[in-house]
Design goal:
The chain is an alpha/beta fold and 241 residues long. It has a single domain, classed as Phosphoglycerate mutase-like (Rossmann fold, 3-Layer(aba) Sandwich), CATH 3.40.50. The chain has 8 helices and 12 strands. The strands form 3 sheets. The protein has an 8-stranded mixed β-sheet, sandwiched between helices. Helix 1 packs across helix 2.
Amino acid sequence: MKLLIIRHADPDYANDSLTQKGFYEAELLSERLLKTGVDYVYCSTMGRAVRTAEPFLKKRGISAEYCDWLREFDYRIHLSDEMPNHLIWDMLPEYWTNIPQMYEADKWYDLPIMKTGNIKDKYLWVCSEFDKMLEKHGYKRNGKIYDAVSPNRDTIALFCHFGLETVLLSHLINVPPMVISHNFAALPSSVTTLYSEERRQGKVSFRCVGFGDLSHLYEANEEPSFSARFCETFDCDERHD
């Protein structure tokens, strides 16, 4: 099995849609996916993901299954009185890296700050729904890997969001999502590719062969969006917070 985790194109967050650039990115992405070959499509119910998937679905002549669990993982936590409404994937490095439990896959969500947003239940719900989808396609979670109940070479595309993508990846490779979300950036319309690996019959793990790929933009000489990144140096007008 091949999984394609696709972040929506350049966002118009105010209208939960895409910018003019984003619609162009979605068109370029659709041509790439037509060449890649996709058997099944799952899509977030949020507008910016729906708009990103539309060109490909129309050209391919197939429909998507729209899922609430693929919506952005935008639940908030109370870090302090100065930071009362914070996303878990947008904390300052000098804060979260000083908490050892943040690096432990089965303990990070039990931190008191995570309880302020009921993050554990929300995270485990997304992971459970993700596993139900994988089981539907032949791979059943068993501990930290999967049983290949019906091994196959199908390609599944998931149109979603950066924060949500880090949750899915954290579950597949058994690491806390902050390690991914604070050290990697999947830019708009990017494609992350994972393959199942069945090195022993019936036992499967998933391996990433490409994170945040934007080759469809580069081929068209289209500059990637800055969205999801922060300033390269402090003394500039790029995004700081």
